[in-house]
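Recall that a protein's primary structure is simply its ordered list of amino acids. Everything else, from secondary elements to tertiary packing, is in principle encoded there. The following example makes that idea concrete.
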Amino acid sequence: MSSSTTPYYRRATPFAVRLNSLVGRLARYGISLLGSAELTVVGRRTGTPQRIPVNPHTHEGTEYLVSARGHSQWVRNMRAAGTGELRLGRRTRTFHAEEIPDDTLKAEILRTYLARWGWEVNQYFQGITAHSTEAALLTACPDHPVFRITTTRKN
């Protein structure tokens, strides 16, 4: 887990950057890899749209975005903007984002997220899996921001 002074962030390898670029391009053309979509959020410093592929996750009927890599740039931008856009082909959804502060709820969301996406993201969770204890999941919560997203407009 991260230290109290430095938020956890796992930088993408050059291969992961190329793979993310491909997955994002596929999402723009309407091809989702097992539920992926392209997230667009306005950069907090540049004011320009930043795009990255994400795995929107539904838990108990509510949709969330989970940052497997920790306190990444898209997380920092989302905190500043409070809104974003998910795209899959020509379908675009604008949404409001609310970060989840409650670690108990986050732990539940992380467990179902890891059950669904663990094959892809387990390496970023420092040994935490969908089968980890509740206590272990709670210790991972500060390292993995989670946002509840509420669609405000569909195109």
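The two ends are 39 Å apart (CA to CA). The longest strand covers residues 91-99.
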